[in-house]
Design goal:
The protein is an alpha+beta fold. It folds into two domains: 119 residues; 255 residues, Rossmann fold (3-Layer(aba) Sandwich), CATH 3.40.50.1460. The chain is 21% helix and 31% strand. It is built from eight helices and 24 strands. It is globular.
Length: 438
């Protein structure tokens, strides 16, 4: 079954929740310490475990820039106040450090006000003991629109020799590179999205609905960006059943240059005598009904069905448990995670969707494991969208391949199921099979 996170409410501020050319991953933070030194920070955010900030300041009239890496931390303090924190580590001087200065990494802390249901402006401190007496509220905290960033502004934080400087210039429209032409780009193509979501389930339905909305929006806009046709096949609500899934799969008739994406979002399990690594999709219309062969289908069966249809690229994803049936109960709670997308590099999108052929199969959990659901979506689905957005960003230095995207998806989902982010979760480790040519 799909498990829902319970016990500690881990509320992280949501930076950006949708795929958009205007979405933000860049922030400016200005603060003044108790010695009246003024700092200007340029924060680049990828995901809850990967961010960095360039911090510029004058010390003894010398202009200094430091790079600090960040990861997130969340919880509730002794007063019962929910907080979200970016923890700094590994400070590295970008400018010349002739006098061997030291820089203590800063902590950025947001507090959630229950009365107003809003987050405070962040506080900053370099006290590793986190004594509240040493907290200083930042002067300003601003989301930056890349189209308004100038080259002069970037040069305040980056050297003209740095790879990130050139990536940011592309992201901000300060320089252009010719579009890459891929071999399949000019052939008629359509993106088919087959989305199966158990939106009526009393325990996971809210999270499934959230993922359904986010995934539909994501792939619609990817199709628009690539200038390819788009077609949806949705099985949800009262129509959720094995018969409807089978008839929907039968209705998909892709061309030889088409892309077919199948995503299952619901309960999953494995039979006690099951040998395949891949989970069974629980396609019952009622959780009270007995599970039989007439109400389930293995994710590998979808793989075989779609592979035979001849599309250029097939992607099959299952966000569901892979544990023995009735192995655990379902609980309920809420988990908000950082969701951010960086402005996308169209050449990377073309490579992924138009310059590839093959088939991909992946699921959220290994055999014997549960996958975790929240009202904000499944950890695997959230992580998949994060990974895609990160890899197609101008700022990403990783090679943009499906193997890297699915590896990062699995890593991020596993990280979200650790005690740092979920006090009662067991670890989920996804699995993947990729056979793709570029």
């Amino acid at each position: 079954m799909k498990r829902t996170i319970h016990s500690l409410i881990l509320i992280l501020f949501i930076l950006v929740a949708c795929f958009s050319a205007r979405s933000q991953s860049l922030f400016e933070i200005k603060f003044t310490d108790k010695q009246k030194i003024q700092y200007s920070g340029f924060l680049v955010f990828f995901n809850e475990s990967n961010a960095y900030m360039r911090i510029a300041y004058y010390y003894n009239n010398v202009y200094t820039v430091v790079n600090v890496s960040y990861t997130s931390r969340n919880g509730t303090n002794n007063q019962g106040t929910t907080y979200s924190m970016l923890t700094g580590y590994n400070p590295v001087f970008i400018t010349e450090n002739k006098t061997n200065l030291r820089y203590n990494p800063d902590y950025l802390i947001w507090f959630f006000d229950k009365a107003s249901q809003t987050w405070s402006k962040p506080y900053v401190t370099d006290d590793s003991l986190l004594n509240p007496n040493n907290y200083v509220m930042v002067d300003t905290y601003t989301k930056l629109d890349p189209k308004n960033i100038t080259d002069e502004y970037l040069r305040r934080f980056f050297g003209n020799y740095e790879a990130d400087y050139f990536s940011l210039k592309k992201m901000c429209g300060l320089t252009t590179t010719p579009d890459v032409v891929v071999r399949n780009e000019n052939k008629p193509s359509r993106l088919h999205l087959v989305l199966i979501a158990n939106t009526n389930d009393p325990s996971i339905g809210v999270g499934c609905t959230t993922d359904e909305t986010n995934l539909k929006n994501e792939f619609r806009q990817i199709a628009d960006a690539l200038n390819v046709s788009y077609q949806e096949y949705i099985v949800d609500g009262s129509a959720f059943s094995k018969d409807r899934v089978q008839s929907t799969l039968n209705s998909v008739s892709p061309g030889s240059n088409d892309i077919v994406i199948f995503i299952y979002r619901g309960h999953g399990f494995r039979w006690k005598n099951q040998t395949t690594d891949w989970p069974q999709m629980d396609l019952r219309t009622s959780s009270y009904a007995q599970i039989t062969e007439n109400s389930t289908m293995n994710l590998a069966d979808v793989y075989n069905t779609l592979k035979s249809k001849g599309a250029r690229l097939n992607i099959i994803l299952g966000d569901c448990c892979n544990s023995e049936i009735n192995a655990s109960s379902v609980t309920a709670n809420n988990f908000l995670t950082f969701q951010v997308d960086n402005n996308s590099d169209i050449n990377k999108l073309k490579k992924l969707f138009l310059g590839t052929n093959g088939i991909i199969l992946s699921s959220a959990a290994q055999k014997g494991e549960v996958s975790w659901n929240t009202s904000q979506g499944g950890l695997y689905s959230i992580s998949f969208l994060q990974s895609v957005r990160e890899h197609i960003s101008y700022l990403s230095s990783e090679t943009c391949t499906w193997d890297n995207i699915l590896t990062k998806t699995i890593t991020l989902a596993r990280s979200k199921s650790t005690p740092t982010y979920c006090s009662n979760c067991t670890l989920q480790n996804g699995i993947k099979y990729i056979s793709v040519n570029y």
